[in-house]
Design a protein that fits this description.
The complex is a heterodimer. Chain A contains 14 helices and two strands, in the order ααααββαααααααααα. Chain A is mostly helical. Chain B folds into two domains: 191 residues, Alpha-Beta Complex (Penicillin-binding protein 2a (Domain 2)), CATH 3.90.1310; 329 residues, Beta-lactamase (3-Layer(aba) Sandwich). In chain B, a hairpin with a 2-residue loop joins strand 13 and strand 14. The termini of chain B are far apart. Classes of the chains: A mainly alpha, B alpha+beta.
């Protein structure tokens, strides 16, 4: 690689800034909870910093690996993902399975690990590879799409069965956005979308926990103990922040009024402490990531790079958008984290690896249009 | 199309548009929350800092008509957990469970059920004894977050006495909490579950008070808020019953503990219920808070169904007591006069090709109305019933107050059943039933069903000259502030009987108890003219049910009564003496 072959610096800086904000916010929002549960205010901070460093390291490593290598790993990764997702469903292996019937993570030796975070990234590889390989047959549903759709469908169902309908739907959105940019025909997209929504609707009707979440979204008084209460408190957090916020560290809501303030609802505390201004700055950072990410994808050397770049960017942005939509009560509670900022090892690690790959894709761009065209692959006319 | 910049428009434009749209939606929403509505939410956040500490209001007492206390409250200790103070949760809960003898899993469930409000105490065990309290006090340091408080506990001073009408209280269930939303109930609140406790819940409950306390950053209480004075507790109102404790005691004793049955005594001049007993019974004190599983199972699986109030929730064939309705209808429709005689009774009556028997195999011979009632001759009433006809008979019975609930102030009163033509058509199909059903109905057998309460009210109406009062148990609701809400008698209707015909019926009732051949002689009281009617209801499942209804004294009735003993046998020998005892006790003390 020559000297010009540099990753996108703006993207890099934006990511590091977001991780930094995350460290500050995790500390600020978890102080009270940590003090109460573990008698030490830095309990979550220490762990989060460790994970952030690990994640950044992983990002740096991924940045240096030629992204084409991931193409070869896609199939195997998909197999492993499906295996892990099935494992979570097994009783005793899945963590917390006994307590509430909800199991989203695996208990490996000393860390808890959420396979669905990994699956998101692997799905991006997989779809990018499939859509590159089947480029010529993309208009043909049976030949071009069906095998891919089956594998993806299986993993979506496994995630939904955890049961984590929220993540399943976000992953579904991710899949659709990749299909859309890959050139799948609209009519096929519409049909698959309809089927997915049908499945989701069935689940909402049949699984009490899903129904409760949707109902409590429509009427927050329905579940004043659980999700409804959380959202109510989240809105109070955000709203009481006002334009400039109550100041870093001054959140009142994090003092246990808002449950789990450092994970799914970290954005609410951020909004309370830093106000509308702070929130817009954070959103702008995400917008920056999206812009630079899409730009890198567009400038990628080949179709695989283009699809990977778009997919990874979509993954981050959709995750962010749904999380913010949840805490602002624009959609029902899903249990999705805010990328880079929320406390949570698996999501931080895999999001940063994704960013490393994106940065790697961005490297190819500076090589110039001529070489860019040349590298588009063997199928030029 | 394969190479070059593929999918150019789609690949570039769509993501950009999606990103911008999502970004805008979120930004607008946040602007709305944080700028437009910021002040509303700031106020809500302020309120979050203030803790509300609820103070339970004592429930109103329940007194008998002379002011004797039947139900009151006594202080008791309840052990609670303050979730936010809980350290080393598992260990603490383990320790506590051993001291209280409660399943640790149950404690965990209770605490986690309330995890959203970590500052409100979660009641773990109520009404603990002093020994346990001392142990907890001793281990205070090992039990962080465990506290004990005083709370009023319901006490039924007379034990099992009048259990069915007093009812029970218990901890509010999640479902009740849902239906009572907005009525100041919380987890752990007590609520009336049955009987008067349930019927008069809104009056008995009172209003819980609230103390406002400011909470510090780590959730500890700083102290009361200067600018928010506490909301005072408003104790519940007392109920003054129509029940006469002394009479109730007599009735409870008169109806043996080993039988199933009911006694209802009513003041015929007002409809006030003087005593109401149902057997078998239970101790409402068992229910005061949370009922242990074993107790529940025992009460629910008891074949005698002790929780059922047989005076109002069960209906029985009225047997010969119903002959008064048939007699009244005969007189009123002018089918008979008081001296009319039918074909003499030879022990049975042939209708179609079927023989309907009289209870006395050797027969009664030829009788007029008074004699037929006194000796309860079935054959006489078969013939009378046939002359009246089904439609007229059932209409008359309904006018006497049967077939619908009377509106006693207790939950779940049943209305019994007075079958009419439409009923038989529905049940058996048009013209698929024999007019012979009328023969059974006119002697109170067959499909018709009444409650002991209905029988008592019917008797009271005969006694007082024809007015059917709505029976009631609470004559006054007295608030602590001294305001009282007395209740006046209400009239439901009037017996469809003229004064002359009523006199004839009364005379025949007197003959039942007073005549040498009367079936109800065992209800007689020395020196008092008692009137009444026996009934022996055939029961396909076993022994006959014994009935007696009556009132006394004949000319100035002050008590009307209905007694039912399930599987008791003959009304005259089983139910009549019970009624006699109760009426005698009441009249000897001079009534009221």
């Amino acid at each position: 690689m020559d000297g010009k072959d540099r990753p996108d610096r703006i993207l890099f800086v934006a990511i590091v800034l977001l991780v930094g904000v995350g460290i500050i916010m995790v500390y600020s929002s978890s102080v009270a909870v940590a003090q109460l549960r573990y008698q030490t205010s830095s309990f979550f901070l220490k762990r989060h910093v460790l994970r952030a460093l690990l994640g950044l390291l992983a990002m740096l490593v991924a940045m240096r690996i030629d992204y084409h290598r991931w193409q070869k790993l896609a199939g195997l990764g998909m197999l492993v993902s499906i295996f892990l997702l099935s494992l979570v469903l097994l009783p005793r292996v899945g963590w917390g399975g006994s307590a509430k019937g909800l199991s989203r993570s695996l208990n490996l030796a000393f860390v808890r690990f959420q396979p669905s975070e990994m699956v998101k990234l692997v799905l991006v590889f997989y779809i990018a590879r499939q859509m590159t390989r089947k480029e010529g047959q993309i208009g043909d549903f049976k030949e071009g799409l069906l095998p891919t759709v089956c594998v993806i469908g299986l993993s979506l169902v496994l995630i939904a069965l955890q049961p984590d309908l929220g993540t399943a739907l976000v992953v579904g959105m991710l899949v659709f956005s990749m299909f859309a940019v890959a050139g799948v025909r609209w009519i096929h997209l519409l049909k698959m979308g309809f089927l997915t929504l049908l499945g989701a609707a069935t689940m909402i009707f049949c699984v009490p926990y899903c129904r409760l979440r949707v109902l409590s979204f429509l009427d927050s008084e329905l579940d004043p103990i659980g999700a409804g209460y959380q959202i109510e408190q989240s809105l109070i957090s955000l709203g009481s922040g006002g334009i400039f916020g109550v100041g870093l560290g001054n959140s009142r809501q994090k003092l246990l009024f808002l449950p789990e303030p450092h994970t799914d609802f970290v954005f609410s505390i951020l909004g309370e402490e830093l106000g509308f201004v702070g929130v817009v700055v954070i959103l702008a950072l995400f917008l920056l990531v999206a812009w630079r990410g899409l730009r890198a994808a567009r400038g990628a050397a080949d179709r695989f790079g283009f699809l990977m770049g778009t997919g990874i960017t979509a993954m981050i942005f959709l995750n962010m958008a749904v999380n913010v939509a949840v805490v602002t009560r624009l959609c029902p509670t899903t249990g999705l984290t805010l990328p880079f900022i929320s406390y949570g090892g698996s999501s931080l690690l895999f999001n940063l690896i994704g960013m490393g790959i994106l940065l790697n894709i961005s490297r190819r761009r500076l090589a110039g249009k001529a070489s860019w065209k040349k590298r588009r692959g063997p199928c030029a006319c | 199309m394969i190479s070059g910049r593929p999918l150019s428009k789609r690949g570039e434009l769509i993501p950009a548009i999606v990103v911008i749209v999502l970004f805008s939606v979120l930004a607008i929403r946040l602007f709305d929350l944080q700028v437009v509505r910021a002040s509303d939410y700031r106020r809500l956040s302020e309120e979050n800092r203030i803790r509300l500490i609820p103070v339970d209001a004592p429930r109103g007492h329940i007194l008998d008509r002379h002011g004797e206390v039947l139900v009151c409250n006594r202080p008791s200790y309840v052990v609670s957990i303050l979730p936010f103070m809980l350290k080393e949760m598992e260990l603490t809960i383990q320790r506590l469970s051993r001291i209280l003898n409660v399943d640790p899993q149950e404690i965990v469930e209770k605490v986690s059920q309330r995890r959203w409000n970590r500052f409100a105490p979660v009641k773990i065990k109520r009404d603990i004894d002093f020994k346990t309290l001392a142990i907890i006090q001793e281990h205070k340091l090992d039990l962080p977050g465990v506290i004990y408080q005083v709370e009023p506990r319901r006490e039924y001073l007379q034990g099992q006495l009048a259990a069915h009408l007093l009812g029970t209280v218990g901890e509010i269930s999640p479902r009740e909490l849902e239906t009572h939303r907005g009525h100041r109930y919380r987890y752990g609140s007590l609520i009336g579950k049955a009987g008067l406790e349930r019927q008069y819940e809104p009056f008995l409950r009172g209003e819980d008070g609230v103390q406002y306390v400011e909470v510090s950053a780590v959730g500890r209480e700083i102290g009361p808020l200067a600018d928010r004075p506490p909301a005072e507790v408003k104790p519940g109102s007392d109920l003054i019953l129509t029940i006469d404790l002394a009479l109730q005691k007599v009735a409870e004793e008169a109806l043996s503990d080993t039988v199933c049955g009911a006694v209802v005594a009513i003041d015929p001049t007002s409809g006030e219920v003087l005593a109401m007993v149902s057997r078998p019974t239970f101790d409402p004190n068992l229910f005061s808070t949370v009922v242990p599983e074993s107790t529940w199972r025992q009460l629910n699986e008891d074949p005698g169904h002790p929780l059922l109030n047989r005076a109002i929730q069960c209906s029985y064939p009225p047997a010969s007591t119903m002959k008064l309705v048939t007699a009244g209808a005969g007189l009123e429709y002018k089918v008979i006069g008081q001296y009319t005689r039918f074909a003499p009774c030879s022990g049975a009556y042939k209708y179609g090709n079927r023989w309907f028997r009289c209870w006395r195999p050797e027969g009664h011979g030829s009788l007029a109305l008074v004699g037929a009632v006194a000796q309860s001759c079935d054959v006489y009433f078969y013939q009378l019933g046939l002359k009246i006809g089904l439609e007229r008979w059932s209409e008359f019975a309904a006018d006497c107050g049967f077939g619908v609930p009377l509106g006693l102030d207790l939950p779940n009163e049943t209305g019994g059943l007075i079958p009419d033509q439409a009923f038989f058509d529905r049940r058996y199909g048009k013209r698929k039933w024999s007019p012979g059903v009328l023969l059974n109905l006119s002697i109170g057998q067959g499909e018709n069903l009444v409650t002991p309460l209905q029988m008592a009210c019917f008797t009271a109406a005969i006694a007082n000259g024809g007015t059917i009062y709505r029976p009631f148990l609470v004559r006054e609701i007295r608030s602590v502030a001294g305001k009282s809400l007395p209740r006046d008698p209400q009239i439901v209707g009037h017996l469809p009987l003229s004064a002359d015909n009523l006199k004839i019926i009364k005379r025949s009732l007197r003959a039942v108890v007073g005549d040498i051949k009367g079936t109800g002689r065992q209800a007689a009281i020395e020196g008092v003219a008692v009137a009444g009617k026996t009934g022996t209801a055939q029961n396909p499942h076993g022994e006959d049910h014994a009935w007696f209804i009556g009132f006394a004294p004949l000319d100035d009735p002050r008590i009307a009564i209905a007694v039912l003993v399930e599987l008791g046998g003959h009304g005259g020998s089983v139910a009549a003496p019970i009624a006699g005892k109760v009426m005698e006790a009441y009249l000897k003390r001079g009534g009221l």
